[in-house]
Amino acid sequence: MTEVGTGVEREPRGGRARLGFGLLGPRRSRHVLPAGQLAAVGVPVGDDGVVIGVDAQNRPAVLGLNRPTPLEVVLVGGLWMAQVVALRAAATGARIAVETGRPQVWAPLAQAAGGGQQCVTVHEVGRVPPQGPSVGSPVLVVRDAGTRPPRGRVAAAPWQSVLTLLPYLGPTAPRFLESATLVGVQRVSPEEAEVVGRTMALPAADVGALSGLGDNFALWCTRTHRQFVMTQPTDAETGLLGTARRVD
Predict the structure, then answer these.
(1) 105-150: per-residue pLDDT in tens?
(2) Which helix (H) or strand (E) is 197 found in, with range?
(3) pLDDT range class, residue 58, cuts 50, 70, 90
(4) In b/e form, how buried is each residue of 110-122, taking b as 16+ CB within 10 angstroms?
């Protein structure tokens, strides 16, 4: 699996830790041990998080939202992608607090998620109460407040990540991109792609690709690493959210 945005990446071939993407796993030939030596083998556990799709090699891409350090995520994209991330985060045991000026589009998700448990709550803009995150009860705050979201009352904290949804890049967007730990970008105009490219130090090929992405594709990036991801909805997600779409 490929992990996106955990803050630390360990190289699979013994390299030093890198900021950005997560553990890819070893790429070595198989080894055989006698049964009596198995107790001495320690197996690290990695790739922990929310599966948001597959990468170019068709490997699962994982977004590490539940973590002991603050994570600020900005998604320049559509409601559909933000809701898929929220649903999948809830499936990992996170509580979801949605701050939105359009509660009617989040209400069906809040009612359907959690199997009868209230794991998704919807709040007016600026009215999200303290969530009390912990290792046993992590939180994802989704801010759906237009292109100029006001300063939020609830900030990123240990075990509490914040995802800010920007439908397109307004005048204040560079400020959000610069302060984010991780940025996801769906299809944008060539002019918007240039802004993202300058802010996130993207190569020209990636900048050019941003204006032609399909509705279920996104580029997830930090200033040092980047990855195109295709998000395939499950039947249940399609039934609740509809088909993939960039514009709401």
Answers:
(1) 999 999 998 766 789 999 999 999 999 999 999 999 999 998 888 8
(2) helix 190-200
(3) very high
(4) beebeeeeebbeb
pLDDT in tens, 2-21: 666 544 333 344 444 444 44
- Residue owning tokens 């068709």: 58
Within a 10 A sphere around the Cβ of 78, how many other Cβ atoms? 20
Residue 143 near residue 99 (C-beta atoms within 8 A): yes
Contact call for residues 218 and 228 (beta carbons, < 8 A): yes
**Angle, vertex CA 200, rays to CA 195 and CA 202, nearest 5:** 90
- Could you give the residue ranges of the DSSP H alpha helices within 51-91? 79-91
Q: 153-186 as b/e, with b when 16 or more CB fall inside 10 Å?
A: ebebbebbbbbbbbbebeeebeebbeebbbbbbb
185, 219 contact by CB (below 8 A): yes
What does the chain come to in residues?
A: 248
Q: How far apart are CA 140 and CA 148, in angstroms?
A: 20
Distance CA 162, CA 154 (A): 8
